[in-house]
Amino acid sequence: MTSTRTAYFGIDQSILEYSTVDYLLRSADALIVPAIIILLITVACVGVHAVTAFIIRREVGLGYVQVGAVLVLLVGAFVTSLGVWTMFANLPFATPFLFEPSALGGGVAVSAYAFWVLRRTALGDQRLRRLPMWEKLGYVSVVLLVVVALFWACSSYAGALGTGRSRDYAQDLNRRPSVTVYSVHSLALGRSVTEERISALDSKYGFKYTGLKFVTLSSGKYFLLPADWSRSAGVAIVLDESAEYRVEFEPGRG
Q1: By percentage, how much of the chain surpasses pLDDT 90?
Q2: Which structural domains are found in the chain, ordered by start?
């Protein structure tokens, strides 16, 4: 998220030298939504498993359960195939956001569960207590694939969230804190930043710069943007904290 957020403005996150605490604070909103969705899906899966296990124990309507399991297995295998396909080529139709990791992880998970239901209804509890090694390895592989798909989905979501947040920030740039920089020497910050010479003889600073907006401060570095910044024509400005500068802040407008 931090990488795409800074890349939107044209700089690499390594320039700002974020600390571990900075990353943790900035990643909170990128974790909340995925965590809630994962927990909701977990609750739904627990409910489905409870109903399925109850029907199997009662041994009433097992034929319907088996038919449903076969259909779910076929659909899961098909969705998994689509997920694998998208890893190497584009599908011939438009897919929603996060389709690839969702298809891969979800397809594998439901296929494995449907297979387990068929094995359970065919063999019973006693024989399932001693699973063959190939089946154990299969379930372990499924868990690992689901975990990898979750990391993939969360990473894609965080990247998209970072880009979206930066886009919103740029659209509301006039509301962000304004910055005035006083400098001993000329900084040549660009045409869109106003440079004024300070003529007072007893002034420590010889130049004043206005037309800047504050983004963040990290590791003694100010990340600033011109007030009229745009992706098509704009530069990002990074200034190290120094005795040669004085930085003043004013509330944004609007």
Answers
A1: 43
A2: 2-171 (no CATH), 173-250 (2.30.30)
